[in-house]
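Posting this for the archive.
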Amino acid sequence: MYRREGVTDASVCDLLTRHREAVNRQVMVPAQVLSRLVRDAERELVHQEGLAWEAGGPTPARIRQGMADVEVLKALLAA
């Protein structure tokens, strides 16, 4: 059915290859810029965590994951 629409094994493989490359793409960012972004992200995550706490709820998983990501970036910047 898909072959009638022009979808081939090769085109699917090509699409998957391009997707994998996009997912693993790396870019160069000045450390100072990344540092500012990490600091701002951390402040916002702490703020969101405080709002959740004030509402009587636990820290949402997305905030915990964001804080873990911030810690990874801070460690990489310190290295």
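Residues 3-78 form one domain. The chain has a mean pLDDT of 90.
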